[in-house]
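Sample intake sheet
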Amino acid sequence: MNTTTENISSLTKTLIAGAALVIIIGGVKSASSLLSPLLMAIFISIVCTPPLFMMQKRGVPTIIALIVILGFVGLCGVAVFSLITSSIDQFSQSHERYRGNLALLYTQFSGILAQLGIPLNLDIVFEKINPNSFLKLFNYLLNALSKLVADGMIAFLTVLFILT
């Protein structure tokens, strides 16, 4: 009789452990939007701690050292942000040129396929490359960029609180 109780107890423990694991994984998944900026902030704080201690050891006041280090981190963030925005801007400016090059390639490719006896309807292809799809892509890129800025601000403030 004692073995049955131990088996039930063992099964119950396994089920409870499995349920706890599912709850933990679900919690991490739901908190992922906040978890990634937090992990990025912890990494930046770890990288910025040695320069902070070095500056303090040389007699620089802590507040001045924090301002210098966070200014440098902010400058790096602005550089990355401007690189991303200029890339998006260049892409949006050269969209029509890409579309023209693609049309030329498809025309040449359809000529080769026509010689082989395979018909190709270019209207279907260009329907997929319409300006509306470009605007959807541009909207997606702007939303991703705004999320990047928001996550960057969360990370920046978290680094500030960790280092102080």
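Comment: Helices lie at 2-30, 32-57, 62-93, 95-115, 122-128, 131-163. The two ends are 61 Å apart (CA to CA).
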